[in-house]
Amino acid sequence: MTQAEIKLCSLLLQEHFGEIVEKIGVHLIRTGSQPLRVIAHDTGTSLDQVKKALCVLIQHNLVTYQVHKRGVVEYEAQCSRVLRMLRYPRYIYTTKTLYSDTGELIVEELLLNGKLTMSAVIKKVADRLTETMEDGKTMDYAEVSSTFVRLADTHFVQRCPLVATTESSDPGLPPPAPTLVINEKDMYLVPKLSLIGKGKRRRSSDEDAAGEPKAKRPKHTADNKEPIPDDGIYWQANLDRFHQHFRDQAIVSAVANRMDQTSSEIVRTMLRMSEITTSSSAPFTQPLSSNEIFRSLPVGYNISKQVLDQYLTLLADDPLEFVGKSGDSGGGMYVINLHKALACLATATLESVVQERFGSRCARIFRLVLQKKHLEQKQVEDFAMIPAKEAKDMLYKMLSENFISLQEIPKTPDHAPSRTFYLYTVNILSAARMLLHRCYKSIANLIERRQFETKESKRLLEKSQRVEAIIASMQATGAEEAQLQEIEEMITAPERQQLETLKRNVNKLDASEIQVDETIFLLESYIESTMKRQ
Amino acid sequence: MASRGGGRGRGRGQLTFNMEAVGIGKGDALPPPTLQPSPLFPPLEFRPVPLPSGEEGEYVLALKQELRGAMRQLPYFIRPAVPKRDWRRLPRELKIRVRKLQKERITILLPKRPPKTTEDKEETIQKLETLEKKEEEVTSEEDEEKEEEEEKEEEEEEEYDEEEHEEETDYIMSYFDNGEDFGGDSDDNMDEAIY
Lengths: 534, 195
Description:
Chain A contains 21 helices and 14 strands. By secondary structure, chain A is mostly helical.
């Protein structure tokens, strides 16, 4: 774990879970797997606090535990999982586009709470949806249930590993920590629940139908009376599936940018067909025949078979090699080269960064070196058609930032510098890693700056919130216009200006975080895919 | 031995490689020496590309800010505890916690937590909703109710108490004010112990 990653994890944990969880989490990330007492001793926090923090972290899938010999339980933090917290808004928005508001709220509840049972999710979501509906209408559990089942079928939510029920009669103490196992087949099995009911509004007094327990104080006694049918079966959001979806989206939009809408639709169809058959880390999809693709095209598209074949040939011949032809049976077997596509996207990101940071001439040199793989100083000047001095300057600038590296090729065995070739080359993997590291640092800087800005205007923010609360309550009790006006004037014009500026800045910083996270996704996918192939 | 002494003998200023190979010709002006560390914010040569705006961008932005606020309100957000008070100096009746509860809690906390946590959180949320509704009532009534509830449940008290006792800013408490007691409202129930 690099320092930049640890710093970013620390900021994220602190923002979302508070300082105590942050301290424990960062300590675990730094030192690896540790038992409970050692954590408490090393961080200097009380045992109580450590226990609470660990519960929260385990609940959110950020820390896992393992029983070692002699009954010692050790806890390990997953740094990469903590970094996923940046992407939560993107997951939720994606679900909204695919499954509308109901799906959006389901995934949001799962992400906010870590793990939940199906019945709990459905109840919460129904309640939330009922709040937003007009008076008198309520959300039925069955609707929410069906959306949940659809999410499980398309693997966007999955079951958490279950407590293993060991048959062996172990005399003596039960194990200090349960071992959790999950069967591949059961991961998306939805339990049969007969959930009948509707969402409840929070403050309505007409929901207390006879027989329904009040949603007030004796809630836990009600739970004891009716055993939850799916007790122990917890669900979590399946982040890998979301990543697969993002990757597919990126490939489709890349094809659309490079060629046209129809070819991107063809690629999208191919990806959709391989969703279930290909694992997310495969270098290319299963071969699909042209006939199959023709049959699976979306209904609105009526292009003839010949046109489809032409498009497929064009795609396969494209130098970017997103689509490859793997055989001729069935009208031509085509695959999508996932690894190549990811490499292309990562390279495009690098090129774009060089262009925006150093200018278009530098970008020209960069693309040249990428294309020719190894070039000498003189050759760079010749091919790029840039005067020698400028070319030198740009090359050194890029070299110092590690976008380009030098490869030495000795002519003599003693590696004498005067008799060695020095070639410029771009090592995409290491450049991608370097850029990823910079992205982590950038986001950490953005978050810190945002916190700084908010802290500066803390007093003003508090005041404005109080004024808003007063206005809201006065409006509720029916006050006159003049009184409201008076209260609003409590915030002076320059203060309003300051608040406006603050809001604008915070929005900009937040939007930048989201943007950098997209870059992180592309680079991480590429690096992961490359590491898997080796 | 002769070549030691700080490199001041012959051979000073000679490099191990041919300078022309790297591109610095003879007689070329070298860049000026750097006498200070590079500035903290180096000047930007090119302006950054504008951020994506539009419906999707704004929705995701609003979502992000909402999530941040929402996570602070959830029971998973653990606030730092109130410091220990010296109970010798305060009347005994202010100390609500009984020692017995504390011992029970520590031993059964961890093994039971993973399956039970979600229920606890739900109960906590329910409790918080309940208590929000009753904010407008007289504070003494609140006290009595809280004592009743504390006798029933064990662990959730901490979460709730800490919400009341927050040291950092949290806008929930003053949000439901009706504005009459503008400044001094947050001193209710402050002297309760956490454990």
